[in-house]
Amino acid sequence: MDSHRRHFLHSLTAAPLFVPQRSFGANDRIRYGLIATGGRGRYLNRIFAKQGAECAALCDVYEPHLEMAKKDSPDARTFVEYRELLELRDIDAVVIASPDHHHAPMLMAALSAGKDVYLEKPLSKSIEESGRMIHAVRQSKQVVQTGMQRRSAESIHKAKKLVDDGVLGRITLVKPQWHWNIAAPLDNSPLPGKLDWKRFLGSARQRELEPMRFRRWRYFWDYAGGNMTDQGTHLMDVVQWFTESGPPVSAICSGFVAKMTGAEHPDVFSAVFEYPRHIVTWTLDYDNSYQNGWSITFMGDKGTMILDEAGFEVYAEPWKKTNAPVYQENAPVPVESHVQNFLDCVKSRKETNCPVEAAAQAVAGPHLANQALLKGRKVKFSEMG
Questions:
Q1: Does position 14 have pLDDT exceeding 50, yes or no?
Q2: For residues 186 and 290, is the Cβ–Cβ distance under 8 A?
Q3: 3-class SS at 156?
Q4: Of 197, 207, 315, 371, which residue has the fewest beta carbons closer than 10 angstroms?
């Protein structure tokens, strides 16, 4: 193992610190603030409310988003500047659903303010940033959960146990994929309503407003790692968790913009990750719906496991078309259980199901693949940082 990868793995083993901040009774409601009230933020807000938490504050740089979120949380105070929300003494936690380039500064500001944090994935915008975020979390007394809900799904844990029990034998190839036929040219028409463009940009490169950069920020390098780190973080987390492999040794990647005209990130790509004992091929096509949605195929010398939105199936070797699965579980991946785990940990001060170290490992490979795509060659982990 190269020294850089060894150092990164060592940084993921720091001992957590958990110190109670206030005592919760059995019926006490956790009060939280929501930072970024776009589609994902409003979705999480409804789930947190369903799980019994109380939204006390809302923050967004785009006024129409705040107005929509206010319909679900009419009594919540509203802010444009997230640091003002963090000054509130009567909230226990924050939910951060902002663009990726705001994740690190918002997380660190929340920790400094003594707030527990539910942070949407991907954790970071770079491997170097992941290291700084791990350090900040472990120097704090706060509970942090990253929004990778498969970590809290009962069916995924059952599948992991089968892998641990050796049902698949030696795994040599893993094939995560995501297919949706949703790609279309980016909308650059004028934005309705008031937007604080400067606050949206934050530390990103200063430029004149282009509405499509706000509407579809995920597809621009200044703000995010595209679907490589968005969907890739979910799937690569499961891959590395099941194979207990840590981040990859190297990555190569090819991709292009097929129909998402205006985007910088590809809507079709394929990456190959090298690990010491297996390889992983991660592909995404947003221009085709065959095998619609996500799936991960684990291929071992004793069997094959297919995980997807419906659950999982395991087929024994030697495979034949007529084979019936030897194991099968039909179950969704609920976000509710992941949110509930965070809320439980806020009260108990225990470790969450997806701590910052797991989130850093999950996004490391996708960050590496993005560098390979930009450089047009294989990139080794030892080159990063």
A1: no
A2: no
A3: helix
A4: 207
The reported pLDDT for the residue numbered 19 is 37
Instruction: Measure the CA–CA gap between 36 and 31, rounded to whole angstroms.
Output: 16
Tokens 């621009």 belong to which residue? Answer: 220
Full residue range of the structural domain in which residue 308 is found: 153-335+367-383
SS3 296: strand
Residue-by-residue DSSP string for 328-349: EEE----HHHHHHHHHHHHHH-
For the record, the structure tokens of 6 come out as 């060894």
356 in a structural domain? no
**Amino acid at site 382:** S
Decide: helix, strand or coil at residue 88: coil
pTM beyond 0.85, yes or no:
yes
Checking if the pLDDT of 12 tops 70, the result is no
Beta strand 171-179 pairing with 279-285: parallel
Specify whether 160 is located in the same domain as 277: yes
CATH of the domain at 321: 3.30.360.10
Q: Is residue 315 part of a domain?
A: yes
Same domain, 146 and 195: no
> Contact 124/363 with Cβ under 8 angstroms?
yes
pLDDT at 17 over 50: no
- 86-121: per-residue pLDDT in tens? 999 999 999 999 999 999 999 999 999 999 999 999
DSSP label at 276? Answer: S
Based on the domain organization, do 116 and 160 belong to the same domain? no
* CA distance between the termini of the chain: 16
CA distance 67 to 276: 50
